[in-house]
């Protein structure tokens, strides 16, 4: 990183800290305000806006999930607020042509490379196996299999293939 600018896959992104510093220097009579739109144990949605004399000039929204990354496990609210601020400032014209902050881009790349595995309970798995067994008896194995959620499909793919072979 060099002076608040991060190069990610050949594109330069300004950190939100740099965008805020530019905002404060160039818009001293404007306000930067954040508001929690939704928050619970799983997710946070924050709206950030830039205002002058009570009029909203620019907005930005962000959503973060607590389970999306190790950092979000403890700081999903902070990450959400930072992303919303970055988007509001980009909407104002601060930050270049990219709305996503450097942190958002890094986080998105990490999530693409390390998708969150959906957990499947044992009772859910057992019920799905029973449904597949019954479906195979009436020639509906394929339809039933593809009606399962992806995490269950992944766990029962071999089982479904065995049922298909034995039919």
Principal-axes shape call:
elongated
Number of domains: 2
Beta content comes to: 15-25%
Instruction: Identify low-pLDDT runs.
Output: none
Biggest sheet strand order reads: 3-4-5
How would you describe the oligomerization state of the chains in this entry? single chain
Q: Helix/strand/pairing class, anyone?
A: alpha+beta
Please bin the fraction of helical residues: 40-55%
Mean pLDDT: 84
What's the total count of β strands? 5
How many individual helices?
6
Distance between the termini: 59 Å
Q: How would you sum up the major sheet?
A: 3 strands, antiparallel
N to C succession of SSEs: EEHEEEHHHHH
What Rg is obtained from the alpha carbons, in whole angstroms? Answer: 23 Å
Care to describe what's here?
The protein is built from six helices and five strands. The mean pLDDT is 84. The radius of gyration is 23 Å and the shape is elongated. It has two domains: 109 residues; 45 residues, no CATH class. Strand 1 and strand 2 form a beta hairpin. A three-stranded antiparallel sheet has the order 3-4-5, covered by helices on one side. The protein is 50% helix and 23% strand. The longest helix is centred in the middle third of the chain and has 21 residues. The protein is of the alpha+beta class. It starts with a strand and ends with a helix.
């Amino acid at each position: 990183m060099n002076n608040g600018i991060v190069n990610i896959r050949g594109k330069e992104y300004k950190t939100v800290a740099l965008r805020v510093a530019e905002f404060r220097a160039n818009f001293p009579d404007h306000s930067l305000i954040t508001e929690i739109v939704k928050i619970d144990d799983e997710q946070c949605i924050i709206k950030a806006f830039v205002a002058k004399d009570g009029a909203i000039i620019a907005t930005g929204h962000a959503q973060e999930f607590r389970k999306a990354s190790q950092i979000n496990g403890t700081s999903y609210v902070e990450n959400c607020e930072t992303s919303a601020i970055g988007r509001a400032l980009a909407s104002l014209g601060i930050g270049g042509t990219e709305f996503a902050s450097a942190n958002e881009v890094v986080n998105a790349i990490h999530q693409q490379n390390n998708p969150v595995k959906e957990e499947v309970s044992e009772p859910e798995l057992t019920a799905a196996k029973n449904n597949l067994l019954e479906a195979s008896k009436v020639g509906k194995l394929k339809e039933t299999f593809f009606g399962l959620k992806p995490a269950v499909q992944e766990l029962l793919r071999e089982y479904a293939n065995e049922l298909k072979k034995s039919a």
